[in-house]
Amino acid sequence: MAMAVGKKGGAMSEMNVTPLIDVLLVLIIIFMVITPLTPNGLDALVPQPNPNAKPNEEVISRTIVVSIPADAAMTKRVKINQDEVDIRQLGSRLEDIFKTRNDRVIFVKGDSSLPFAEVAMVIDIAKGAGIDKIGLITQKLEESSQ
Amino acid sequence: MAHKPKAPPTVADINVTPLVDVMLVLLIIFMVITPMLQKGVSVDMAKAQNPRLMPDAEKEDATLLVVTRDGKVYLGNGQIALDEITTKVKDRISARLDKTVYVRSDARAKYGDVVKVVDNVRAAGVDSLGLLTERLQRRTALQ
After folding, report:
1. Based on the structure, what is the number of domains in chain A?
2. What is the spatial distance between Cα A119 and Cα A23, in angstroms, rounded to a whole number?
3. Is A16 on the interface with B (CB under 8 A)?
């Protein structure tokens, strides 16, 4: 073997790759953590208009509609049917209402000038209160079902 | 060869070259895959505390509508006009059992724009929506 390696006091000819490996490992770990982000989401229903069947009185009286006015971002108040509720109490109010019921359905009606985040927050609170069916009411739906 | 050849002195270091090679390849693979995993246009989603995991939204054949902050609507990666949504969505879900349509909306998009999309999706016969959100890790005070 002609290579004269490890001669006493000889200059080290190899690069020090340890910092390189460190950086690479960290980068790989970062990319591996970013990759498996399963999407999260809130379920919502879009009820189809049914112009033939008129809802009876009982159904109407039991329906809960949470409406979000245009100024909800400032006043922090939403409406459950006709009652104004502070948005922080919305969850507990909904829990109260649905304590004795087994049809956990509400409808959410938001003003069209609201940012989507406000509506998403109300839906989120409702989900947190254990409501599993949330229907989105839109202007068009109301018009076509009348 | 009159005398025995001298053995080379033992190298005490591990040979890290293959390790570096493999790691570089892995790094490149992850770097290439990561942007490809994001389906559709990326928006700043609303944050929620009680979302459900929606692994189906990532699937290749999922119907994903994106609403951006300025009210533009994308179906997958291509922009789409509001009045085209109904027919396109109908086409996509006609042969499907799971008729859920996923909506990824920017948190600051106008709800009116989202409602327009929802109206058009409803007209396509869809009755369940998945509103994609980001999960908030800890329970912060509701603003």
Report:
1. 1
2. 43
3. no
